[in-house]
From TrEMBL, chain A:
<comment type="function">
    <text>DNA-dependent RNA polymerase catalyzes the transcription of DNA into RNA using the four ribonucleoside triphosphates as substrates. Specific peripheric component of RNA polymerase III (Pol III) which synthesizes small non-coding RNAs including 5S rRNA, snRNAs, tRNAs and miRNAs from at least 500 distinct genomic loci. Part of POLR3C/RPC3-POLR3F/RPC6-POLR3G/RPC7 heterotrimer, coordinates the dynamics of Pol III stalk and clamp modules during the transition from apo to elongation state. Pol III plays a key role in sensing and limiting infection by intracellular bacteria and DNA viruses.</text>
</comment>
<dbReference type="InterPro" id="IPR036388">
    <property type="entry name" value="WH-like_DNA-bd_sf"/>
</dbReference>
<dbReference type="GO" id="GO:0003697">
    <property type="term" value="F:single-stranded DNA binding"/>
</dbReference>
<dbReference type="Pfam" id="PF08221">
    <property type="entry name" value="HTH_9"/>
</dbReference>
<feature type="compositionally biased region" description="Basic and acidic residues">
    <location>
        <begin position="211"/>
        <end position="228"/>
    </location>
</feature>
<dbReference type="InterPro" id="IPR008806">
    <property type="entry name" value="RNA_pol_III_Rpc82_C"/>
</dbReference>
<protein>
    <recommendedName>
        <fullName>DNA-directed RNA polymerase III subunit RPC3</fullName>
    </recommendedName>
</protein>
<keyword id="KW-0539">Nucleus</keyword>
<feature type="domain" description="RNA polymerase III Rpc82 C -terminal">
    <location>
        <begin position="146"/>
        <end position="344"/>
    </location>
</feature>
<feature type="region of interest" description="Disordered">
    <location>
        <begin position="199"/>
        <end position="228"/>
    </location>
</feature>
<dbReference type="Pfam" id="PF20912">
    <property type="entry name" value="RPC3_helical"/>
</dbReference>
<feature type="domain" description="RNA polymerase III subunit RPC82-related helix-turn-helix">
    <location>
        <begin position="7"/>
        <end position="66"/>
    </location>
</feature>
<dbReference type="GO" id="GO:0005666">
    <property type="term" value="C:RNA polymerase III complex"/>
</dbReference>
<dbReference type="InterPro" id="IPR013197">
    <property type="entry name" value="RNA_pol_III_RPC82-rel_HTH"/>
</dbReference>
<comment type="subunit">
    <text>Component of the RNA polymerase III (Pol III) complex consisting of 17 subunits.</text>
</comment>
<keyword id="KW-0240">DNA-directed RNA polymerase</keyword>
<dbReference type="GO" id="GO:0006351">
    <property type="term" value="P:DNA-templated transcription"/>
</dbReference>
């Protein structure tokens, strides 16, 4: 893993799980697969803490273990999975758009806890929903279960691998670590549970969890005593399915930008039809006939068959080649070129980066070189219609930024420089990788800056929190307006100003992180798709 | 990302590490400093270069491949007048001697090129073009709020392991009332390796040994017994010493339990092998595996009652 990725992983782990887990996690990412004692020795932490940290990491699917010969168990960290933690808000928001609040909370619970049993998820989500509802209303478990089943059917949640229940006929020693297996067909199989119940509303006295001694808190012990019907069957969020959804979204919006709404609907229909038939890593979807597409169009769209055919022809003829025609049977067989679509999206990202960093004339040269593949210095000037001096300057700026590279073509075997062609070219894969690396660095910088800002104003933040707590408690006990005013004035006007600025900055930094992550997703998908094809 | 050095903008295309002697400290063992300041004049350098025919084969750089260095090797001054000599092979010295047709890359003759930058680029460079404003919309706002909320929530989850704070000199009164109570989280031990379970520190002498023997299966137990007997017989002559060694062996076995359970079988095997191979030696190498855990014992079997 590159240094930038390791740094980013370290920041993410520290924010989410604390320093100890971060130390262990980063050590594993750096050094690869290691057994327990070596980790404890190298990081200098006690065995007990290493165990706790590893338990947390394994629970969240960030570390996997493997039994090697002689019974040694080695632990390996998944760096790419750690980087997915950036995308959690996007996953949860997607679930909200597709399955409304219930789906959103289910996915949130699964992401926050790594793995959970279905009954535990349903119970927690029902409790949370009940709290937000009006007094007297409760959320039924059945409704939450239904949403869960729907999520499983559309593959957004999947089962975790489990220990096969073999009868231990051989009196051999128990293995040092369980070997977890899962088969394809079982992955989305929902166990038949009859979860009956309603969400419980937490009583108001329980809400103030901070400051209450443990003994006074009512125990949720009653639930632990009941046997859990689906014990051992854990569920996790299926991130690949979410990625497929994001990719489809990106393609549809690209088509909508380039052409119009109707064509994007046609493409969306085609993608929806191929969700189940095509694995997400294929370069293109299964061929779909025009008749099928016509039948599957959403009900609201009443375009005639001829119009649909025209749209499909237009899409197939488009130079971007999102849609391709693969045959003539059934009114025309059409496929969506997923790999080409991802390539176009990555290229568009590169172009826009060049434009924003170097200016529109540079972007023109960049697009020119992209289109013509290889160009000499002179030709660039001629085609782009930019004076030689400026063209040279721009080319070298882009060259030193590694967006463009030079290709040498010797005329003579001795590669004499005076007799060699030097051609400018764009290697999309390597430029995409360079940009991806830069994105990781950017996010690491953004997180660091945000932490710095928060630390700078820590005292002020704490003070404002205390004041808010005081006001809240006073309002609960029914204080007068005058007293509230007095308390509010504890924070002076310049301090308020400072708080406002801090809030604005932190929001901006957070929003930037989310948007850089979108770029990361596009670039990663493109690189992955290209590597699979090679 | 400015490149510093001679040919700005061109270096990226050259295969790195070859040809440019200032980067190439390859098999000839050339010292960079010596390369820049040849002692003994040109001929000495040439001799050294030509003395390693394999080095020349290594040098895949297009500028130098197949060339004979009978021509000038001295560095050239840093302007473009030198370009007239196409055979100047001195670009290996790190000076800006343009040995190629400069027209090919578009610079005019005698043109003033920008100065060589000899320091890293500034930390916060001025940008000509300001960044585009962020996307704003309902979705983005919601995701922003979610992100901040998640950050707070994660800190309160049981998975967030706090670093144990150092003891402060004065215990603050408010600290007692500001503690956040977290739920305990117990992982599902069936899904985790056995070594993850927290060990209970209790002495389990002969009992655990028996368990281990059972675990290893019949054959090993036999071997263990046989080995024990052999050892005893071997050391019969020393009397006390043999008893000591037996005790040490058993003690060693116990201590090896402190290590990981999956190491047990391996450690035992090793131990027996060691003792087999070792002669008359009081020191068993695997005696103390880990001084820290001395005395701690392991749970071999979850079903077994703990003492």
């Amino acid at each position: 893993m590159t240094q930038a990725e390791i740094k980013l992983c370290s920041l993410l782990l520290q924010e989410h799980f604390g320093e100890i887990v971060e130390k262990i996690g980063v050590h594993l990412i750096r050094t690869g697969s290691q057994p327990l004692r070596v980790i404890a020795h190298d990081t200098g932490t006690s065995l007990d803490q290493v165990k706790k940290a590893l338990c947390v990491l394994i629970q969240h699917n960030l570390v996997i273990y493997q039994v090697h010969k002689r019974g040694v168990v080695e632990y390996e960290a998944q760096c790419s999975r750690v980087l997915r933690m950036l995308r959690y808000p996007r996953y949860i928001y997607t679930a909200k758009t597709l399955y409304s609040d219930t789906g959103e909370l289910i996915v949130e619970e699964l992401l926050l806890n790594g793995k959970m049993t279905m009954s535990a998820v349903v119970k927690k989500v029902a409790d949370r929903l009940t709290e937000t509802m009006e007094d007297g209303k409760t959320m039924d478990y059945a409704e939450v279960s239904n949403t869960f089943v729907r999520l499983a059917d559309t593959h957004f949640v999947q089962r975790c691998p489990w220990v096969p229940a073999t009868e231990n006929s051989d009196p051999g020693p128990p293995p040092p670590a369980p070997i977890l297996v899962i088969s394809e067909k079982d992955m989305y199989l929902v166990p038949k549970l009859s979860l009956i119940g309603k969400g419980k509303r937490r009583r108001s006295s329980d809400e103030d969890a901070a400051g209450e001694p443990k003994a006074k808190r009512p125990k949720y012990g009653t639930d632990n005593k009941e046997p859990i019907p689906d014990d051992g069957i854990y569920w996790q969020a299926n991130l690949d399915r979410f990625h497929q959804h994001f990719r489809d979204q990106a393609i549809v919006s690209a088509v909508a930008n380039r052409m119009d709404q109707t064509s994007s609907e046609v493409v969306r229909t085609m993608l929806r039809m191929s969700e189940i038939t095509t694995p997400s890593t294929d370069p293109f979807t299964q061929p779909l006939s025009s008749n099928e597409i016509f039948r599957s169009l959403p009900v609201g769209y009443n375009i005639s068959k001829q119009v649909l055919d025209q749209y499909l022809t237009l899409l197939a003829d488009d130079p971007l080649e999102f849609v391709g025609k693969s045959g003539d049977s059934g009114g025309g067989m059409y496929v969506i070129n997923l790999h080409k679509a991802l390539g176009s999206l990555a290229t568009a990202t590169l172009e826009s980066v060049v434009q924003e960093r170097f200016g529109s004339r540079c972007a023109r040269i960049f697009r020119l070189v992209l289109q013509k593949k290889h160009l000499e210095q002179k030709q660039v000037e001629d085609f782009a219609m930019i004076p030689a001096k400026e063209a040279k300057d721009m080319l070298y700026k882009m060259l030193s930024g590694n967006f463009i590279s030079l290709q040498e073509i010797p005329k003579t075997p001795d590669h004499a420089p005076s007799r060699t062609f030097y051609l400018y070219t764009v290697n999309i894969l390597s430029a995409a990788r360079m940009l991806l690396h830069r994105c990781y660095k950017s996010i690491a910088n953004l997180i660091e800056r945000r932490q710095f800002e928060t630390k700078e104003n820590k005292r002020l933040l704490e003070k404002s929190q205390r004041v808010e707590a005081i006001i809240a408690s006073m309002q609960a006990t029914g204080a007068e307006e005058v007293q509230l005013q007095e308390i509010e004035e504890m924070i002076t006007a310049p301090e308020r100003q400072q708080l406002e600025t801090l809030k604005r900055n932190v929001n901006k930094l957070d929003a930037s992180e989310i948007q850089v992550d979108e770029t990361i997703f596009l670039l990663e998908s493109y690189i992955e798709s290209t590597m699979k094809r090679q | 990302m400015e490149e510093y050095g001679a040919c700005q903008g061109l270096k990226s295309s050259w295969p790195s590490g070859r040809g440019l002697a200032r980067e190439w400290v390859g098999p000839t063992g050339w010292d960079r400093n010596k390369a820049l300041r040849p002692r003994g004049g040109r001929s000495a350098v040439l001799q050294r270069w030509n003395a390693y025919p394999s080095a020349r084969a290594f040098c895949l750089h297009p500028f130098l491949a197949g060339r004979h260095f009978g021509c000038t090797v001295l560095p050239k001054p840093r302007d473009l007048v030198s370009r007239t000599n196409p055979m100047a092979g001195s670009q290996g010295r790190g000076r800006a001697a343009y040995t190629f047709n400069i027209e090919a890359v578009g610079f005019g003759r005698g043109e003033k090129l920008p100065d060589v930058v000899l320091k890293p680029p500034p930390l916060f460079p001025d940008t000509d073009y300001k960044p585009v404003p962020l996307k704003a919309g309902e979705g983005e706002d919601y995701m922003l709020a979610l992100k901040q909320e998640l950050r707070e929530t994660m800190k309160r989850m049981p998975y967030y392991i706090e670093t144990p704070e150092e003891k402060q000199d004065i215990e603050r009164y408010s600290k007692r009332y500001m503690k956040v109570y977290k739920e305990e989280w117990i992982p599902d031990w069936r899904r985790l390796p056995r070594e993850m379970m927290p060990r209970k520190k209790c002495k389990k002498g002969p009992k655990s040994e028996k368990v281990k023997d059972m675990g290893k299966g019949a054959s090993l137990t036999n071997t263990a017994d046989v080995l024990k007997k052999i050892e005893e017989l071997e050391k019969r002559g020393d009397g006390e010493k043999s008893d000591e060694e037996n005790e040490e062996k058993e003690g060693g076995k116990e201590k090896s339990q402190e290590g990981d359970e999956e190491d047990d079988a391996a450690a035992e095997q090793e131990e027996y092998d060691e003792e087999e191979q070792e002669e008359e030696n009081d020191y068993i190498n695997s005696y103390f595996e880990d001084g820290d855990d001395f005395g701690a014992d392991s749970d071999d079997n979850m079903d077994e009652a703990t003492y």
